[in-house]
């Protein structure tokens, strides 16, 4: 089943005709009592046990986790905090068509699997986040948990973070909605997870790997959804409410910010200035123009005021500018670039012209704009529109609007006067 844009509203209350096969991956490190509660919650699921696999991914605990019969355990050596790698390890052992994640200190309610897996089972493009509530489960046992879930005394509920509650349904997700996806309560199809390569294992500290993955999935055409009915209870307060040493907390958050900035082309995450290996915009320029027109066309692109790099041009023409590349962009660059500009040849952009077209293909706008500047064809497209169309093998217009547009640029004849034009870019 497919939807247009991010509008999954027609599936809000739908259920698959047959429950999907589901694998739940639980990262773990040296917290057996909390893991016991999580596994007890998973044993109480309304989803059929015959179609549910539980995988505990141990991040190098000194002693292997103790688990009930039927639960799969995979382990990696202890090389510091490597939750991203542990989740990938668990995912590789999964055999379900739907892949869910719940943290080792986050106890799922009985309907968690049923509620979180329904949309990915119907919509293979879905990336779904559940609702994470908070409680003090200090000293709790599996028996006490089971009594709570059938109507017994509940634990003390702690403050639920407002920033997660603000996400709503995500029907109107934009290119910053990755911030509302948390791996503690997350699900997607195993096929989509594998297509994008899973979590980035270069994350070696707390936080950030789920936002980076969510951004990459959204760029790959995923449909973001928030399912409040899929509830899991985190043992303890949210990170921002823990009252840790403020200097240590700031250092931890700064490390997350640095890690995200290098991988995630969000201006709000990167700020201004700097050179980045993964740009927000990939521009491809077809060869064939003379060197002078090519130089002016590339300089015009680079002067557009956006996080952009150019491919298909000899970088020696621009004195080895690291933003200019011969050949084609790598798969890792395309996996993160939000937008793509395809040019049959060089043009000179009007001030603000390219930025305006790029803004139009952000989420909520058309997936692709096409136009001409003289004899030069110009395409500006959202990567997520291109990727979803390619995944399904269907025209882009099946999923996103398309439009022809006036391109705010002027053609470049042979050997333009560089001394005249360059100071005016």
UniProtKB/TrEMBL annotation:
UniProt pathway annotation: Cell wall biogenesis; cell wall polysaccharide biosynthesis
Residue ranges of domain Glycosyltransferase 2-like in the record: 23-142
Keyword terms: Glycosyltransferase, Transferase
InterPro entries reported in the protein's UniProt record: Galactosyl_T_C, Glyco_trans_2-like, Nucleotide-diphossugar_trans
Boundaries of every Galactosyltransferase C-terminal domain copy: 178-221
Coiled coil stretches, renumbered: none
Enzyme nomenclature, EC number: 2.4.-.-
Gene3D superfamilies: Spore Coat Polysaccharide Biosynthesis Protein SpsA, Chain A
Pfam families according to UniProt: Glyco_transf_7C, Glycos_transf_2
EC category name: transferase
Alphabetized GO MF terms: glycosyltransferase activity
Family according to the record: Belongs to the glycosyltransferase 2 family.
Protein name: Glycosyltransferase
Source organism (scientific name): Klenkia terrae
